[in-house]
Specification:
Length: 121
């Protein structure tokens, strides 16, 4: 029996460091859950060398984003939207900035919702 206790203790110590939270879809968690994120904004440029000052930008307030996995799901969905070249997510403000040519707010909203999150009006 002692070896089972030791084995389980080891598993529960290691799992959080190997992506156990990859299932996270925001709405499945409360704000007080144990996921950790950096205070720095999440930033991703889809077009290498893009000068963001030459693109339009739009800001969106998102709900349901709780961890790095969540924002990566949103990023994956936004990479499929024509014209989007970069995103930045501000954790504290729950604000997503999107850069691109002729950025369509409705298409951005649809992409975010298709990833399982919501956009506040």
């Amino acid at each position: 029996m002692r070896w089972i206790t030791i084995l389980l203790a080891g598993i529960f110590t290691i799992l959080p460091t190997v992506g156990i939270y990859a299932h996270c879809k925001g709405e499945k968690h409360e704000d007080s859950h144990a996921h950790t994120v950096s205070a720095a904004p999440y930033f991703s440029v889809f077009v290498e060398g893009a000068d963001l000052s030459s693109y339009d930008s739009e800001a969106f307030k998102l709900r349901g984003i709780m961890c790095q996995s969540c924002i990566k799901n949103v990023e994956k969905a936004l990479r499929k939207v024509d014209g989007v070249v970069a995103i930045r997510y501000h954790w504290e403000e729950k604000k997503l900035e999107v850069w691109g040519k002729d950025v369509n707010r409705e298409k951005i909203k649809e992409a975010v919702e298709s990833a399982g999150y919501s956009v506040e009006s």
